[in-house]
Amino acid sequence: MRVIFFLEPVIFQSNPIFLAAHFFWADCIRNATYQLDGDFAFVANFEVCQEWQHSKHGNNTELQCFPIDPFKILSSFGSSRNEYCKAIYGPGDVPNSLTNQLQQVREEFRPDLIVMTSQNCFARHAFSGVPILSIEQAPLPRFGHPLRTVFDPYGHQVGSLFETHAEKIKSLPLSDVDYDDLKCLLNDIKINVLKVDLRCAEAHAALEMIKLEGPVALLVTQPPDWVTYEGAYKAIELESLIYSWAENLPSGWIGVPTYHPGFQLNSAMESALARASKRIRFLPKHLSTGLTEAMLLSADGMITVSSTSAITSLLLGKRTVVVGRSPFNSWTIDTPCNLDKAMPLSLREAVSTLAFLTNRYIYVHDEIVNNPMPLLELMRSVVSEPDSADWFLDLSNWTIDRARALFNFSRL
User: Fold this and answer.
1) Does pLDDT of 58 surpass 60?
2) CATH 3.40.50.2000 occupies which residues in the chain?
3) What is the pLDDT, as a whole number, of residue 56?
4) What burial class does residue 175 get, using C-beta atoms within 10 Å of its C-beta: 0-12 exposed, 13-18 middle, 19+ buried?
5) Per CATH, domain 176-351 is 2.30.30
6) Which CATH class, in words, describes the domain spanning 2-130?
7) How far apart are CA 164 and CA 327, in angstroms?
8) 412 confidence band (pLDDT: 50, 70, 90)
9) N or C: fewer beta carbons within 10 Å in the chain?
10) Contact indicator for 6, 347 with CB cutoff of 8 Å
């Protein structure tokens, strides 16, 4: 098997090697490829390729790299990163430098499988006809759990199994025993959230006080220069995003912002927003970051651009709005003004969804490092199955032991 690992080549967050954090996945895929006696190639921008060869592998010249020039790519889009980010969510057939460079890579390397960690329609267009495996951190509750990876043979933000097979996932049939086991696991997830951080009790108390004024929607944000905003949604300042979401909530609802650790508004901007909108309430600074999952237990609903927060909200039976292009567009509505019309998942739908997530879709990092066999089986299935969705949706080998291992409550 000949495998290409493709990392988004265009610079993000003003750091050419920002995506070097994805080397863990590259190492796992490379090791699995070698287990199959295959050939592996790494495709990224010049700086990431250099970091991959020098820092991680001691200038190992045997590693095959195809460096991509990100500035040449951007020149095809008026040298505007924003225009490029929007374009990578399109059909992918617009002539550009990235497609040309990747088609040359395809002709030289002749891959059997492409592994990608981000949405990029130009890469999909250049490698059309070659099976593609999209990977990212798993859309499961993360609070206090081990690192996990999702492997999707259909897509990333666009076209994933979650988007294309939503109804099948929500209605997967379960035996009575499996259903009861998964209900217990879902309950354990809720209990576990409250044990992880000493701030949880204080956060719940603060949210309960706000709920005296009306139903509460968490406004779950991400750093504003992430491609999720610029490509899947729109380029918008975080303060304007929060104001827009809050002002468009249904009558009587209160918006409570929560932040990603990578970026939060300062106190002066929060005060300005609170003055401008009577629909916004801010939590104390020490409670507003990193506690979204815990506060979802008390909140009535949520608005977000985050896949992980979206699936957590859905599993907990909350009203959910996911804006922009998302794997969960098939599961939720996309406008804050209709939050009160959003239908939460039933318990049976949530349990079936949890069964899918804990079957063949998600793997704990330790699992794919210490035991290559699951990853080998996955890669073979994506390449050889007529429709790999059938393999992912097959619950015949699902076990509660593996499902619990994905959460590893014993770590607490």
Assistant:
1) no
2) 2-130
3) 59
4) exposed
5) no
6) alpha beta
7) 9
8) very low
9) C
10) no
